[in-house]
Amino acid sequence: MDADKERFTALYDAHRMRVWAYAASRVGRQAADEVVSETFMVAWRRFAEMPSGSLPWLLGVARNVIRDSARAQVRRDSLAAELRTSAESAESDVADGVVDRLALLRALTRLSDADREVLTLVAWHGLSTKEAARVVGCSTAAFGVRLHRARKRLTAAVNEGPPAPARHQSMAKEMEWS
């Protein structure tokens, strides 16, 4: 093991600057140190396979390290661009969601208390029609009919569009925060 270590140290001392110069000519001075480190790590792992004329082999390894690094950078750049696009899309989706939610809240204020209760039990509280029917005190079939009619009235109220009447403004504010 000591003999291998000494041979590797001699190899490193003999070729480090040439490998660095090659790397610097390809990727610049700042990145050259990283390329040299990676190149000699590969050389250490594959030391037993290294041919006797080691400089061309080392430069080939450095070339592969540079190529792999460039590919990885392209992947990172692509991922970053994709994430930026996704974030921009998400921002507009959030804004659209806020507008949609406000329109929905305004429409809810136009409905009767009974319609609001039926809709919120299912949509906001996550109850099944059977569970919600028990809360309201009616059969599941009757609740299903009430829910269907309330949804139709809600759709009509959303499509109507004008602002909610003043008497329902405070209720809409409460619903925004619950």
TrEMBL record:
<dbReference type="GO" id="GO:0003677">
    <property type="term" value="F:DNA binding"/>
</dbReference>
<dbReference type="InterPro" id="IPR039425">
    <property type="entry name" value="RNA_pol_sigma-70-like"/>
</dbReference>
<keyword id="KW-0804">Transcription</keyword>
<keyword id="KW-0731">Sigma factor</keyword>
<dbReference type="InterPro" id="IPR007627">
    <property type="entry name" value="RNA_pol_sigma70_r2"/>
</dbReference>
<dbReference type="Pfam" id="PF08281">
    <property type="entry name" value="Sigma70_r4_2"/>
</dbReference>
<dbReference type="InterPro" id="IPR014284">
    <property type="entry name" value="RNA_pol_sigma-70_dom"/>
</dbReference>
<dbReference type="InterPro" id="IPR036388">
    <property type="entry name" value="WH-like_DNA-bd_sf"/>
</dbReference>
<dbReference type="Pfam" id="PF04542">
    <property type="entry name" value="Sigma70_r2"/>
</dbReference>
<dbReference type="InterPro" id="IPR013324">
    <property type="entry name" value="RNA_pol_sigma_r3/r4-like"/>
</dbReference>
<feature type="domain" description="RNA polymerase sigma-70 region 2">
    <location>
        <begin position="11"/>
        <end position="75"/>
    </location>
</feature>
<protein>
    <submittedName>
        <fullName>RNA polymerase sigma-70 factor (ECF subfamily)</fullName>
    </submittedName>
</protein>
<dbReference type="GO" id="GO:0016987">
    <property type="term" value="F:sigma factor activity"/>
</dbReference>
<keyword id="KW-0805">Transcription regulation</keyword>
<dbReference type="GO" id="GO:0006352">
    <property type="term" value="P:DNA-templated transcription initiation"/>
</dbReference>
<keyword id="KW-0238">DNA-binding</keyword>
<comment type="similarity">
    <text>Belongs to the sigma-70 factor family. ECF subfamily.</text>
</comment>
<dbReference type="InterPro" id="IPR013249">
    <property type="entry name" value="RNA_pol_sigma70_r4_t2"/>
</dbReference>
<dbReference type="InterPro" id="IPR013325">
    <property type="entry name" value="RNA_pol_sigma_r2"/>
</dbReference>
<feature type="domain" description="RNA polymerase sigma factor 70 region 4 type 2">
    <location>
        <begin position="102"/>
        <end position="154"/>
    </location>
</feature>
<feature type="region of interest" description="Disordered">
    <location>
        <begin position="159"/>
        <end position="178"/>
    </location>
</feature>
